[in-house]
Write a structure and sequence with these properties.
2-enoyl-CoA Hydratase, Chain A, domain 1
Amino acid sequence: MGTSALEFEKPIVEIEKQIDELKRMAEEKSMSVDAELAPLVDKLQAMRAEIYRTLTPIQRVQVARSPRRPFTLDYLRLCFTDFIELHGDRAFRDDASIVGGWARLEGETVMVIGHQRGRDTKENLYRNFGMPHPEGYRKALRLMKLAEKFHVPVLTFIDTSGAWAGLGAEERGQSEAIARNLFEMSELAVPIIATVIGEGGSGGALALGVADRVLMLEHSVYSVISVEGCAAILWKDGKSPETREKAASALKITAPDLLELKIIDGIIPEPVGGAHADHAAMAQTLHDVLIENLDELKRLKPEKLIHRRREKFLQMGRYED
């Protein structure tokens, strides 16, 4: 795991170090350490399962933000074939924090669009930390409309802390770009599946989230505001662990909470230890879930899709006394 391991993962890292050290000694001295390795491997698997079974909401936030998790381009490489990236919004410039283009899922042509973060400083600066400008959302909408023109399903991957709130973004109409996406996606005449693969933050996430099926990876989060922003507003302290923990619990941002509230339609299980523990296994699970949902949605006529999608979102937040 290296230096980027999360605080609660440190017991896991210690056992991994012991395993690596035993393997190194075995190679150097040409000796068998199977008897010593077996109990350590069993202990590692049990500890990883127990830790990830009992994650608190704030720990899920930390997992969702981990740079070791698979990003959109990773899933494009592992789940899809024949990806052709399309660039630009045809109005201002290309925004690298949102990637998209044609791809094939089990031979079927789809349009894939998703937020893209970076794993190091250079890449994060290029990707603007996965926080899109208006032109990013306008590029996404252009690709959705292109998919609709050719009757191709749209698959979106959500992974952003929120839309970029800089002066330039506001000058170029950030709120209008997001609102336009919400409106247009509600009327798009092709199947749409949105998957929260990491952190889904505020309108910056929802601009790719108006879909027939909204899915979440098991340890992802989806929220109207960051836990730090919520804590700063409610308790005037967005930095202390205590207020961040309170905010994470109060916001109901985890996949089980949102499934119970009927905000999302399904939870995609992650490998033991999280998606970052096994990119290939996570990609295979996602691949299978997308195919299953897509097969169901393709049976519906466009007008039925649009009606069900709009009703789905209109029902959110309603309650009975």
